[in-house]
Amino acid sequence: MRFLLNLLLMLAVALALGFGLSWYALSDGRLFGAYQSGPWVAWPRAGSPAPDPYSRAFLTRNGALQLGQAEGLQFVAGADSDGRKLDRACRYRIDGTTPVSTFWTLVPTTPDGAGIARPDGPPGFHSARLSRADDGSMQLYVSRTLSPLNWLEITGDGPFQLVLTLYDTTALSGTATGQFSLPAIIRESC
Question: Residues 4, 56: one domain?
């Protein structure tokens, strides 16, 4: 009887560990094919002709159309630079620079991918229409309340994420020269 109980316990531990690691690899995946820089996470192999098994599983679970490797790269942040989940009740400042790219967009969405910008306003920021500092850096604000400079009004309540898409970029392609940096996400008020 003791042998049967030990066998069932080992089987339960093995199943929990196997399913737990699989869930982690498909949802977070920072250890399995994803690239993380601060709060930003990207799956650089997602648009390749032959993605690794973890990227393929992420694509299947995500179900969204991905950019090809030569077309661009998408970074997603569900937390600020201090690790706190993004909340629509707060005001956030996106501060810094983006890697070199021909064009980029920054769109706030629900965790499921639905846009949360004001319906009669712009859906997000893009590189062609925003004011920058003399050194090329930017300060973007995302909140439900009025903010200075580059501001995007969001609607609703609950968590959200920021999706930064770099089009025609060399970031993470192997041909990039030097390190690149992504902007910080700073919670200013709630």
Answer: no
